[in-house]
Amino acid sequence: MKIISASTLKASVVSMALATLLIGCATPQQGPMFDSTSKAIRAAQTAGALEHAPDEYRKANEIYRKAQAMQQHRRTERAQKLLELASAQASLAKAISDASEAEASLGYLYTDSTR
Amino acid sequence: MKNTFHLTSIALVLSAIAVSGCAPKQAWSPELEQAREAYQRASGNPLVTSLAITELDQAQKQLQAAEAAADYFKGRETIAHEATLAQLKALEAEQTARALQAKQSLKLAQAGTPLPQALPQTVPGTIQPFESLQPVMAAAAPEANQSMQLEETQPAAVSDSMQFSLQNNNAVSDDSTTLGSAETQQTELQKIASQLAALTDQIAQLQTKQMYSVGPFSQPDFLQPEFQQPEFQQSETQSSYELLSDESAQLDATTQLDLSPAAPSVAAVVSIDKIETRMEPVTPEPNNVLSIEPDSAEPVMAAALPAPDNNNPYEEALPSAEAPAVEADSRLRGELRSMNARPTSRGMALTLGERYFEAGSARLWNGRAARHLDNIAAVMVENPGLVIDVEAHTDNQGTKEHRNNLTKDRAIAIKSALVLRGVNGRRINTTGFGDSAPKATNDTSLGRLQNRRVEVVFPNVEGF
User: Fold this and answer.
1) Which fold has domain B295-458?
2) How far apart are CA B35 and CA B369, in angstroms?
3) If you compute the radius of gyration of chain A from its CA atoms, what whole number of angstroms results?
4) pTM of the full predicted structure?
């Protein structure tokens, strides 16, 4: 009769515990709302939000991170609400940036034409 | 003992009645107040209503959702969340309009429209592209021309109707003083007038091709700076974000809704209406059908039901079926917009949400509907050529017969309320659409809420 050694048994227990821990801590899958909000934030950044609307951009990022944290705690409904806010903040940042960029271009054009 | 019991019961009942009477009709929320203010400011800005109509519509829907949440006493968190979203969307609409206006100016400039020699320095650090075109427009307009000639000696003589002050514009003053002889000035004026015509053509092309696929263009008053930086202070604007993230690490006490201080305020914009008006000879408003005695603008109260012989002088001008379109000047449009009316392809239209009615009934809540109805009645009494279509809609809940009856009754309820306020019933067409024309999906509660509505359309008021 084969006797399981103590070390083998210990290794098995540790492996099972680790597996259980990993399964429990697995990040819940992020839905399409995360993708769209992430895209909105990236679009704001591309539009120059870091320069023209830094506060709105920073706030959008913070809320997005908070939504990720909520999602990890499986508080999906709250995460969705935060994502809505983050998306709106990012859109506002983009709109401000677009306007500022266009006005700046107009200003340059004007300056060139009057030289 | 028995008497004491009775007295206690009566006292309890009376207390309950008093408490219920004092209870608010809607949950109060500072975020909702701010959202209303933001939407009012955006919807009252003609530039936003013409350039960012989609964004403004989204803000309106979001504000309706926030109002509905407050009406039904949802949790503070929900109300604050919806209201903050509405506020952000209203701000986005303003900024989108600002961006489109600047892009339009840029395209005009790139198309070769000559720019003036100096940028007016009215607000340091502020780019005001179209103020720089004021000399062009001023020169093309006869009355502006007069103003320019009178400028040096009589600055106050600049026409009030134009609200066109050139005295702060050093560049213009310099130009006008160096023009020299009358002949030179005439030649200059002709040249400028032709440039102006080209400019208006370009604007029209841009409107149709690029910017205004959503709807035609309503020209703002370019003489007044339309955009102000939103005045949200950090301390005033608490967001639902704050409420939502109460259990985790504190990030910031508030959501930053104030715009970047470095962001320049949006400049004045070109108004085709204004340009065209200025090119016409000055007449002291001879055919202004909308000019009325000041006291006639007062809302007619419910007690003033028109007599059967219809003594109301304004009702004499009841339009026939082929009545010409009312000349909806900017004042009338402004009044309608102040009631949150929006331009549509069928004319100006405003939406009365379900909250104006008792749930599932055609009974109007007096407190909520009265202000809107007073305003609509006042506008109709003020403008006898106006007719309206009252169109009631609902969601897909209940039987078809119930839905049809409900919408018909609601349309008639609005009509009756307006008739009670002195409007001739023949000027009001009512239709109950049932659920045949949904505005949003009936699969969600928010969509159904949006579908339960009454639309008041002013078909002979051109919204654009």
Assistant:
1) 60s Ribosomal Protein L30; Chain: A; (3.30.1330)
2) 20
3) 25
4) 0.40
